[in-house]
């Protein structure tokens, strides 16, 4: 039997997509690949339709379902907790994972785990299977994650949120630009937050793996990569080898997790727009705003006078179930109800609003796209970088604020949309001014120039002899799997 790499992605499409791209890399190097998918989709895993589309679009990959048989605490009979626990959900996959690996041995040469599957390290150790971590975000975020347990321990009984209400002296983590405590994920501002403590435990376990594959390129995050490889992020413990294998982004050759091969109407609309004239606004598979914020965005876009393509999603419920809910379960938005009266008619000549979803990678690569208003999810950030598009950063949740710090302060590939994360909405005036700035100012043109350079370096990294290509070969040599091409 062929040497096999088994990949165990976390919950959600945002984790599945880069995992599929990594699987494609392994296939090109002569390995057989199995991707494990958790069922049922109500657990927060990708929907049945998304799983089927992933299989249909990747016929050379073997997909295996891990069935979750028990209820998650809080799902039965009462409303779900405000913060659902992805670690608990994925621990329930450990028993079927163990059964599958036993049946597949001895061909399995490596198990590659998402960070949220870190407790499966125990399963791999019990079976003698080499286990690696695939960190689907960037090296800067990884540096923060690995150093956070040490930094929290140094604070003792205090919380990061207690340092000037999150706005105190900047935090200085190895390999990371100085950042304010409030740039950490929200849960990290309260040391007694139960889910935050579970994240700390997961971060502490990452160095137990044999190596960490990171979805980045060394040139883009050189400072963070150097700190990781020097061991500076995990004081007192060895850091396993770090392999930069990115950027792993959708190639624009068909959506990986949607069964829709027809060309989207928004691309035809873009065909009719001048080169680099359109601002694209899209906030990820879980990014949505309340009606008030949508109205401010609409007003700012209208007053800016710029062309725009805007993906609007239905406002979500503010609970844990909503955050783990599948993307396909969200109803389509009623644009007439959510947006200012007459907005669609007044801007119809230069703007297009799309409901719920657009082919983001293809939009960003389209010649008419000139800027990207993004939530700074790492998949979206890399798609913007590889398309050579400047970023207007509007982080919403998880590690996105840390990603914003990197994009704005170190990479200098974007600017911050001021006012995000506040109790009040980002003002229409801010949207208007930043959109005009990036599209028309001298500084905006300089930003676009840096974005073009980053695009070139990203493409070079994946080519034969590039840094990410070489890191992948080094990883393969580490477990003597696959042919080195």
Automatic annotation (TrEMBL):
<dbReference type="GO" id="GO:0035251">
    <property type="term" value="F:UDP-glucosyltransferase activity"/>
</dbReference>
<dbReference type="InterPro" id="IPR050481">
    <property type="entry name" value="UDP-glycosyltransf_plant"/>
</dbReference>
<keyword id="KW-0328">Glycosyltransferase</keyword>
<keyword id="KW-0808">Transferase</keyword>
<dbReference type="InterPro" id="IPR002213">
    <property type="entry name" value="UDP_glucos_trans"/>
</dbReference>
<dbReference type="InterPro" id="IPR035595">
    <property type="entry name" value="UDP_glycos_trans_CS"/>
</dbReference>
<dbReference type="Pfam" id="PF00201">
    <property type="entry name" value="UDPGT"/>
</dbReference>
<protein>
    <recommendedName>
        <fullName>Glycosyltransferase</fullName>
        <ecNumber>2.4.1.-</ecNumber>
    </recommendedName>
</protein>
<comment type="similarity">
    <text>Belongs to the UDP-glycosyltransferase family.</text>
</comment>
């Amino acid at each position: 039997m062929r040497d096999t790499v088994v990949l165990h992605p976390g919950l959600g499409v945002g984790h599945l997509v880069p995992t599929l791209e990594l699987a494609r890399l392994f296939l090109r190097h002569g390995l057989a690949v199995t991707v494990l998918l958790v069922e049922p989709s109500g657990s927060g895993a990708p929907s049945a339709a998304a799983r089927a589309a992933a299989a249909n679009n990747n016929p050379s990959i073997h997909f295996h379902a891990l069935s979750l048989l028990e209820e998650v605490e809080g799902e039965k009979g009462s409303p779900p907790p405000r913060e659902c626990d992805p670690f608990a959900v994925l621990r329930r996959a450990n028993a079927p994972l163990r059964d599958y690996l036993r049946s597949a041995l001895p061909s399995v040469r490596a198990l590659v785990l998402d960070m949220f599957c870190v407790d499966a390290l125990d399963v791999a150790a019990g079976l003698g299977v080499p286990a690696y971590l695939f960190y689907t975000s960037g090296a800067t975020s990884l540096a923060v994650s690995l150093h956070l347990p040490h930094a929290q321990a140094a604070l003792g009984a205090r919380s990061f949120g207690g340092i000037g209400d999150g706005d105190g002296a900047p935090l200085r983590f190895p390999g990371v630009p100085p950042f304010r405590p409030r740039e950490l994920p929200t849960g990290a501002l309260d040391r007694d937050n139960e889910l935050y403590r579970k994240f700390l435990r997961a971060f502490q376990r990452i160095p137990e793996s044999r190596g960490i594959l990171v979805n980045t390129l060394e040139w883009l995050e050189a400072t963070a990569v150097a700190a990781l490889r020097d061991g500076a992020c995990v004081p007192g413990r060895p850091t396993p080898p770090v392999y930069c294998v990115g950027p792993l982004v959708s190639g624009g050759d068909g959506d990986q997790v949607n069964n829709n091969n027809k060309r989207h109407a928004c691309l035809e609309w873009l065909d009719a727009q001048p080169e680099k004239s359109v601002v694209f606004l899209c906030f990820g598979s879980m990014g949505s705003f309340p009606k008030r914020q949508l109205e401010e965005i609409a007003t700012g876009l209208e007053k800016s006078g710029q062309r725009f393509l805007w993906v609007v999603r239905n406002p979500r419920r503010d609970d844990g179930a909503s955050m783990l809910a599948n993307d396909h379960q969200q109803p389509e938005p009623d644009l007439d109800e959510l947006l200012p009266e007459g907005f669609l008619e007044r801007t119809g000549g230069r703007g297009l609003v799309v409901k719920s979803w657009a082919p983001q990678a293809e939009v960003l690569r389209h010649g008419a796209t000139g800027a990207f208003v993004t939530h700074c999810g790492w998949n979206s950030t890399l798609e913007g970088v590889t398309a050579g598009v400047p970023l207007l950063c509007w982080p919403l949740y998880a590690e996105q604020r840390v990603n914003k710090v990197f994009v704005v302060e170190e990479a200098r590939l974007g600017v911050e949309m001021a006012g995000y994360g506040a109790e009040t909405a980002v003002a229409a005036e801010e949207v208007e001014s930043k959109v005009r700035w990036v599209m028309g100012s001298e500084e905006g043109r300089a930003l676009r120039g840096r974005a073009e350079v980053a695009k070139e370096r990203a493409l070079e990294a994946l080519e034969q002899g590039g840094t990410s290509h070489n890191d992948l070969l080094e990883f393969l040599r580490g477990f003597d799997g696959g042919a080195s091409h």
